[in-house]
Amino acid sequence: GGQVIKDKVSVVGDNDAVKLLVSDGFVLDSLFDEAGADNLAGTYGSAPVLNPDDLTGAGKTFLDAYQAKYGAPEVYTAYAAAAAQVLTDAIGRSDGSREDVVAKMFETNITDGIVGPMSFDENGDPKSSLISIFQAEAGGPPWKFVEAKQLG
Asked: 57-70 vs 77-93: helix axis angle to the nearest 10?
């Protein structure tokens, strides 16, 4: 993604001239190094996550412990831990076979997870979903939270 952003800036202009909107796969702190912070400045990105600073309870406890050990978390850090939480929960309720682990993931109903309640619809999508908008600022990372909206 970094090279695409460099090419965009060199061909059509920076984000003052031509706004850049990116999807969740781009909202990573490493993109500042890959694209160059100046090329990324002003870019907006969407991500299906809460602002890490807005997590409470188990999420805040997890991120505080993470930051003390590893430094500032990325936008997705708590969600990676939540995915592990869902997987270990499903494994614990399964008969140990791959098929049953997958079936149990569809039956997941975690009420007090790292990112809040977690359950899935018949397609495997989270029942509770949201989208947050972040913006890359000059001199970043990290991505700065702009706003969130609950979907569905």
From this structure: 120
Which pair of tokens denotes residue 43? 């870019």
Q: Would you state the pLDDT for residue 42?
A: 94
pLDDT band at 152 (very low <50, low <70, confident <90, very high): low
Give the three-class secondary structure for 10.
helix
Q: What is the DSSP secondary-structure string of 36-105?
A: -HHHHTT-EEEESS--GGG--HHHHHHHHHHHHHH-SPPTTHHHHHHHHHHHHHHHHHS-SSHHHHHHHH
pTM, to two decimals: 0.78
113-137 average pLDDT score: 90
**Contact status, residue 116 vs residue 83, Cβ threshold 8 Å:** no
* DSSP-assigned letter for residue 118: E
- Per-residue pLDDT band for 125 (boundaries 50, 70, 90) equals confident
Q: Phi-psi bin for 49: left (phi > 0), alpha (psi -120 to 50), beta?
A: beta
